[in-house]
Amino acid sequence: MPALETFGTTLERPTAPTLAPRAPAARKHRVLPMPALDWNDDVARETAHLYERIKTVIPSVEWPFFAPYVAAINRLKKVRNAVILAHNYQTPEIYNCVADYVGDSLQLAREATKVDADVTVQCGVHFMAETSKILNPDKTVLIPDLKAGCSLAASITGADVRLLRERYPGVPVVAYVNTSADVKAEVDICCTSSNALQVVESLGSDTVIFLPDRHLANYVASQTKVRIIAWKGACEVHERFTADELRVYREGDPSLAIIAHPECPKDVLEEADFTGSTAHMIDWVRTHKPKRIVMVTECSMADNVQAELPEVEFVRPCNLCPHMKRITLPKILDSLVYMKEEVVIDPAIAARARRSVERMVHLKS
Ligand code: SF4
Q1: pLDDT higher for 3 or 185?
Q2: Contacts of residue 145, Cβ cutoff 8 Å, sequence gap at least 6
Q3: Which residue has a Cα nearest atom 3 of ligand 1?
Q4: 3-state secondary structure of 235
Q5: Dist CA 102 CA 81 (whole Å)
Q6: What CA–CA distance (Å, rounded) separates 197 from 364?
Q7: pTM for the full predicted model
Q8: pLDDT digits (tens, 9 = 90+) for 171-191
């Protein structure tokens, strides 16, 4: 029996999520006046400590454009009793200057269970905001742009999972968190790239269906004796990296460290000194403090780690996630002023999806 069997479709599907019906968050929370967005001495003083955090990655000439938004967002968070969760792929002015919690999908999912605020603004993509809502059904969860989708989440539906179950009766199904609530509702447990191996092995089965990322499935299959049945989804950002480009970097500087995310193709991972989730990659850089490094993942993360570790030189093959980049300071401000866009999930689907996410969250690390 092969260690990895791939199943599914490579059909092109839209990357934007299915839009949920608009919810009346603005009715529950009144719309606020749009704050003034002038650059002046008061704003400069109020935001000076935040600029210190990012001065190595954002030139001072650009700060007057960001600072009024940063100041206004931080004031409005208090008015709304809101917190901002930001993924590691958010741009430095969001990640470092307005976010209350930052991390990878697993860290954000865990933070979402502890959030003690009326409103959560999710600076990430739609499936992350859905995960926050699944874990906080009574709270208002906003995403600054409803069209912030994900090629992995768009590659599979709940109906696809039901077909897989018919084809492989009794085989447990693991879904990467990069899936819609509809898919999470159909599976046994979720995982992230931080805990995928642990989740697969926790099921005590000799065969597991793992979806939707074929590259992460391949990576997990290389680390375990469990037979993996994979789906043919892929991340459009990580799939663009090639082993050839990494070899060119290595030839130019043999001392260069290369660390990669497991959503990359197998031959890319074979060129890397370390493979891990975004959280594990950041820990690796903090621990090893290499002189020069390539982080083979979405390129805003290098800016965020650079802000923290200015002594490390980052070589940046810049693959940006177009969906993550839909989230901007002006849209975050609009979210807090107008209470949009609210994430709404059918309660019956949310309840079933919650079981899968909570099973993962409560798995001992
Ligand atoms: S980087 Fe890839 S997996 Fe992450 S949100 Fe973008 S398309 Fe999805």
Answers
A1: 185
A2: 326, 327, 331, 341
A3: 235
A4: coil
A5: 18
A6: 13
A7: 0.90
A8: 999 999 999 999 999 999 999
